[in-house]
Amino acid sequence: MREALVTGGAEGIGLAIARALAAAGHRVTIADLDGDKARERAAELGESHRGMACDVTDEAQSAAVTASAPLDVLVNNAGIGDSHLPTLEQDVDAFRRVLDVHLAGTFLMSREAGRGMVARGRGAIINLSSIAGLTGLPKRNAYGAAKAGIVAMTRSMACEWAAAGVRVNAVAPAFVETALVRKLADAGRIDLPTLRRRTPIGRLIRAEEVAAAVAFLASDAAMAI
Question: For a Cys staple, 66 with which of 29, 41, 112, 128, CB 3.0–4.6 Å?
Fold first, then answer.
């Protein structure tokens, strides 16, 4: 059975990804800042799956969770929201925290998982970027910078590890219909009707649709990607 690790997998897109990988036959480890919720969600997937507490910005914790199983698949999904404040009101500590979780967290987890993957000559890493890293979104400086950095880092690692049999890809969704997005809409921080009008398909993406793309990239069908 293939081993897969999903960071930030206790809810939202990460949970949808964990479910998709479990359905595809992977034994899934859900790593989340909330260890209790990670274990609860893993139990819902079945007795062979695991949940672990992990702060992806902590080097020791990243090393420990990636060493807990010989990983075939790593999904770097863990992240936090931006301040949604105008640039002139943004705090540099909050800016750095967003970069630390998204960008440094993805680097640390990839580096640690990559050690075993390169040694075994196989593996797939899928990183979660965003449309925010590909285009300009007002008030999303830290989030956009972090997600753009993930795109660049994905390309670098993909080129470095391809000959070793390790594939590194990223998906970059637009706004996804999650509890977090609904919470932001209820707080007046995003305008869902406007987002739907600006989206060619006329609706927000579902978490399960992102998960399907990730599951494909984790599969043998994507060996040349």
Answer: 112
pLDDT at 198: 81
DSSP 57-82: T-HHHHHHHHTTS--SEEEE------
User: pLDDT, tens digit, for every residue of 23-36?
Assistant: 999 999 999 999 99
Rounded Cα distance between 174 and 185, Å, is 15
Catalytic annotation, pick one of 18, 72, 143, 149: 143
Pick the closest to residue 222 from 173, 170, 152 (CA basis): 170
* pLDDT value of residue 127: 98
The pTM score is 0.94
- Selection from 136, 43, 34, 44 nearest residue 78 by Cα: 34
Confirm if 21 and 91 have CB atoms less than 8 A apart.
no
d(CA 72, CA 2): 6
Contact 208, 20 (CB under 8 A): yes
Residues 6 or more apart whose Cβ sits within 8 Å of residue 208 = 16, 20
What pLDDT digit, counting tens, does each position of 82-109 carry? Answer: 888 999 999 999 999 999 999 999 999 9
Is residue 50 annotated as a catalytic residue, yes or no? no
User: Residue 123 in contact with residue 166, Cβ under 8 Å?
Assistant: yes
Unique residue bearing structure tokens 């990636």 = 66
Structure tokens of 193?
């009707």
Residue 61 to residue 209: CA distance in whole angstroms: 30
* Residue 38's pLDDT band (cuts 50, 70, 90): very high
